[in-house]
Amino acid sequence: MVRYRSHMEIRYGHFAEFLEIFEELNRLIAARGWSTFTAFVPTVGKGNALVLEAEYPDLATFDRETTAFYGDAECMKVFRRGSELVVQGSNYDELLQPAPHLA
């Protein structure tokens, strides 16, 4: 299993609008049979911070779905609408996998 997280800060006054766009995008993703995302906010910390998280069974699935997503014109149209509401330079991504068993 691998876990993908995308961290970002949403422009003030646009959080609800971003979440509406995110839900629209998640519906498109689900309709294509891809892994959907869950939106998280920190309980305390930086204001207007948001983390989107999805789980994949393996790296190959992550790669296949990511490639398909970026090649999907309808998904990218919605994605770009949402990206206009993200504070420029605030986004960073993580790709996590289970810790190895060491000898």
Q: What structural class should be given to the helix and strand makeup?
A: alpha+beta
Strand tally = 4
Distance between the termini: 21 Å
The percent range for helix content is 25-40%
Instruction: List low-confidence stretches.
Output: none
Radius of gyration using CA atoms only: 15 Å
Stated plainly, the CATH topology is called Alpha-Beta Plaits
Total of domains: 1
The SSE string, one letter per element, is EHEEHHE
Biggest sheet, spatial arrangement of strands? 2-3-1-4
Largest sheet: 4 strands, antiparallel
Mean pLDDT: 97
Count of individual helical segments: 3
* Envelope shape: globular
| Percent of residues in beta strands | 15-25%
Task: Give a summary of the structure in a few sentences.
With 103 residues, the protein is of the alpha+beta class. The protein has three helices and four strands.
